[in-house]
Amino acid sequence: MDNFPEFRGFKKIARLSRDIIITEKIDGTSGLIYIDEKNNIFVGSRNQWLWGSIEPDKMINNHGFGVWAHRNQDELRQLGKGYHYGEWWGKGIQRGYGLEEKRFSLFNVSRWCMWNETPKLISVDPKTNAEKYQDKAPQCCYIVPVLYNGMFDMLAIGLCLERLALEGSVASPGFAPAEGIVIFHTHAGIMFKKTLVGDEKGKVDQ
Is residue 9 domain-resident? Predict the structure, then answer.
């Protein structure tokens, strides 16, 4: 087999009829908090590092996200080791949402709940019956709003979009126009987005 090319098998196909989680798509800028094994904190945007506790004098601001993370670094370390993605949004960023402040909203709604909420049950180990619950987010963080959690359903997707079109944002109650939704397919591990305006064109063509 030494003369054969690298074998690449066909990837397993995920089933469409599985659970999805629909959240509000907030119009801000992407933010990243990374915490390493030694509890060092690093802050990033969509495509670059903004600040890190190893070299604290070097900073790129990105609408104040770097400064905010620096000021809240001790509290943000409560997120624990790993990559934590979210949206940095509010006053002076994109549509602003009528806020007088900026907020960081975490994307992983399955893992996190707000600091003042009761954690929901995530799963039960079939062997040990051990229950796993959500973690409480640091008090300086928000969570993107969940609009639907259930089986894949195009009607549910349409109703979520209709709700935002009629009632405005859930993240900033009543603010209009809302941007759209993000659909996370749990079995495939893939996210899709739909916007209220220009969805068929995409950001590049708008």
Answer: no
